[in-house]
Amino acid sequence: MTSRERVNLAVRHREPDRVPLDLGASAVTGMQVDTVYALRQALHLDEPGTPVKVMEPYQMLGEIKLDLMDALGIDVIGLGVPATLFGFRNEGWKPWTTFEGTPVLVPEGFNTEPDENGDVPMYPEGDRSVPPSGRMPKGGFYFDAIIRQPPVDDDRLNIEDNLEEFGPIGEDDLEYLRAEAERLYSNTDKAILASFGGTAFGDIALVPAMWLKHPKGIRDVEEWYVSTKIRRDYVYQVFERQCAIGIDNLKRIHDVVGERVTAVFVTGTDFGTQNGPFISPGSYRDLYKPFHREVNAWIHRHTTWKSFIHSCGSVRALIPDFIDAGFDILNPVQCSAAGMAPAELKREFGDRVTFWGGGIDTQRTLPFGSPDEVRSQVCERLKTFGAGGGFVFNTTHNVQARVPVENVLAMYQTVRESGQYRR
Amino acid sequence: MSTLDELKEVIINGNAPAAKRLTEAALNQGTRPGDFFAGAIIPAMDEVGRRMRECEFFIPEVLIAARAARASTEILKPLLAGDSSVRPAGTVVCGTIKGDLHDIGKNIVAMMLEGAGFRIVDLGVDVGPEKLVDAVRREGADFVALSALLTTTMVNMKGAIEALIAAGLRQQVKVMVGGAPVTESWAQSIGADGYGKDAPAAVELARRFIAEAARGMSAARRGAA
């Protein structure tokens, strides 16, 4: 059975030969670069000191190359334009060293020097003549957005200001996606998880628009959340326009990539906190669901793609709405959050949604547990989520920095040993 | 409905312009600045906390209510400067721990504590042990509230507590910790005094510490007698 067949069966709620695995096919199913380096070294895939590419600088995700995928039995590969959240492209690689001392390669646009505090600023499009849009604190592992919020004048708010980043996909990007989809489909047997962008409504990681040199509109995280209440119509109108543009782009992309794609990453907007939903189910239905429904309806009417939603946190109260809005796949399945017990989720929603994630707790067990605790939790999750298909094994969100490599190895060893379906 | 009752309602509903207007109106009617807290702001934010716990309010509702409360307190603060009859419930030094730049959770905790009558000294994000120790000493803090969102940074909370011990300030303050990956058992293991799973829990915790301190003091007085 090929990887693609395996994933295709799983997302159609049938049991393949074994539970399929994702690592690195999206910006929320990957691994931080220091950890990738340690893992490659532990598996003897590289000589010591061989740098790893940083594919996503904001979260400092490392490249998951085919040799690592094969060593771990990974079944999914990512497709997306090679742009980063800082607006520069993944090209022109040069050496850099993380605070952990890991040798890495970063794109040419990763153009920075530590500031007077030792923090690492990052600039939109790598342009140091404008203020930085991101910062990695000294000793840190990831970047965070620097909020650049012009004063909000309610009388002059214009939805165009929050739509600057949404527009028709360029011919170059379309051609790239066409060629890349063809290459991945023909040269690998992996299932393709595509991240085309543009269909996440109000994703708080994207609202600050770190790739724009002079963002306008509402860009501050708190101001945005407040705006979903006190400027509800403004936000709704932004989403309305964004949705129309997003669907137009999906049409054009579908024309060039066709059915080579297994699943499409539609949204990464976080709707959950550790304790419960971020917003009320009523607000979800009012402000987000209409657009999720529209995007998913287009996908299901015109393609064979499965629709993928990522939302951290406790979202149990929202899952029925996610399913009703047409999502087929839920990620990252944060079982450490309130009300997200694996057996209950599987029993309640397992026949209607594929769990893509939830393979292990990345808040506690993976970083702080023993290899035995890792094995035992992975075994339990394989059994619970795997029954009847509808499960793609992935950690709950990206594997973070400072995770002991023995735990990562124990996790994949357990998946290999216990992930088989009985025939 | 009295103006203070109305003020309480508009704070709960997150109407900042109305909160400002009603605060000014009540002042014009002769309400003393110190009476707004017990009469409107604290009960309003207690109600917001209750609704959050009961899943009637979510993050945006809490944020707009806190902003409305702030619209009122910003008018009152300068008027209270010389009024020694109005004392904060306690001084809280808060911040997101070193290496971590996430502040929405910390901000909500700070707003809720402020709404409950505490004086907040917000050190912002990426707060190292030195900055924390300086602020605790300078502000005469009663509480330290630390937040972390990352598994890679929550470990720095232990260092912060050790720095307070080394500076001889640990007995002066109660240390509360919180943030997505933080748990009750983690809080205990690093020697924190308490863990708040959300903002209302942090307020409850701070109030419990005050009540315990008051009981301790009266017990000590009885002992002395």
Word description of this protein:
- The complex is a heterodimer of chains A (423) and B (225).
- By secondary structure, chain A is of the alpha/beta class.
- Chain A has helices at residues 3-10, 33-42, 66-72, 171-187, 221-230, 232-257, 281-302, 319-324, 342-349, 365-368, 371-386, 405-418, and strands at 52-56, 61-62, 76-79, 94-97, 103-106, 120-122, 134-136, 144-145, 191-194, 263-267, 306-310, 329-331, 354-356, 391-392.
- In chain A, strands 3-9-10-11-12-13-14 form a 7-stranded parallel beta sheet.
- In chain A, helix 6 packs parallel to helix 7 (281-302).
- The longest helix of chain A has 26 residues, at 232-257.
- Chain A is globular and about 65 Å long.
- The mean pLDDT of chain A is 97.
- Chain B has 225 residues and is α/β, with parallel strands linked by helices.
- Chain B folds into 2 domains: 1-87, Methionine synthase domain (Methyltransferase, Methionine Synthase (B12-binding Domains), Chain A, domain 1); 88-225, Cobalamin-binding domain (Rossmann fold, 3-Layer(aba) Sandwich), CATH 3.40.50.
- Chain B has 9 helices and 5 strands; from the N terminus they run H-H-H-H-E-H-E-H-E-H-E-H-E-H.
- Chain B has helices at 3-12, 16-28, 35-53, 59-80, 104-115, 129-139, 156-166, 184-189, 199-224; strands spanning 91-96, 119-122, 143-147, 174-178, 194-195.
- A 5-stranded parallel beta sheet of chain B has the order 2-1-3-4-5, with helices on both faces.
- In chain B, helix 7 (156-166) links the parallel strand 3 (143-147) and strand 4 (174-178).
- In chain B, helix 2 runs parallel beside helix 4, helix 3 (35-53) runs antiparallel to helix 4 (59-80) and helix 4 (59-80) crosses helix 5 (104-115).
- Chain A binds chain B through residues 135, 137-142, 144, 221-222, 225-226, 228-230, 273-280, 283, 313, 317, 362-364, 367-368, 400-402, and chain B through 14, 55, 58-61, 63-64, 67, 98-102, 104, 107, 126, 150-153, 180-181, 183, 197-198.
